[in-house]
Structure to design on (208 residues):
């Protein structure tokens, strides 16, 4: 497991599952071609790239390069690094048939291949005290529960109010919210936002 500074942007959730087995950082997805029309998702990616940098890791097929080229024009080049996987023929185990071009995607790559791709792209590897400090500041799923943002009555409404306060897409799940908080924010900012939301709701309930 390596811990890196930059967030990683991949095409889909299976790519995320593969990467989470070998790298510790925020991992985002484009949702495939949905990124072309999803302005809220793109704005969120821009905010994360501005804060910590972004590594783009798409498949090596035509669709992957179409997404990568779109992002080249949509994101500041100084905030982005491009990681490339080799063209390897094959099929992921979960699929019944190979892709149109017969190539393995990110999800089908061996860990050492992905690690090499990230390092060659210039990933900033964190170690020592800096890595320990970063790990200690990360919020976990248990923190979302403690803050009333998941697994409790009213959690969904509370989470949507926080998303609105932070200027984030309303469709974000609890896990996606956790990723964003760990990418660009911290527990203190979240607690402050929740406190403000509570105060506003209290004022709204008071008789006029």
């Amino acid at each position: 497991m390596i811990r890196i500074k930059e967030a990683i942007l991949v095409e889909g959730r299976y790519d995320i599952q593969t990467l989470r087995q070998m790298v510790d950082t925020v991992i985002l997805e484009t949702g495939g071609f949905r990124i072309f029309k999803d302005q809220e998702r793109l704005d969120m990616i821009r905010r994360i790239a501005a804060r910590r940098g972004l590594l783009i890791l798409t498949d090596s097929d035509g669709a992957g390069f179409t997404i990568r080229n779109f992002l080249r024009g949509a994101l500041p080049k100084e905030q982005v690094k491009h990681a490339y996987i080799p063209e390897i023929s094959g099929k992921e185990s979960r699929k019944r048939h190979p892709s149109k071009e017969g190539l393995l995607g990110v999800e089908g790559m061996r860990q050492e291949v992905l690690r090499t791709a990230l390092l060659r792209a210039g990933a900033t590897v964190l170690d020592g005290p800096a890595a320990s400090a970063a790990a200690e500041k990360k919020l976990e799923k248990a923190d979302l529960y403690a803050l009333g943002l998941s697994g409790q009555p009213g959690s969904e409404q509370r989470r949507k109010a926080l998303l609105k306060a932070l200027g984030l897409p309303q469709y974000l799940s609890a896990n996606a919210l956790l990723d964003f908080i760990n990418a660009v924010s911290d527990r203190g900012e979240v607690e402050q936002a929740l406190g403000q939301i509570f105060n506003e709701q209290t004022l709204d309930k008071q008789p006029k």
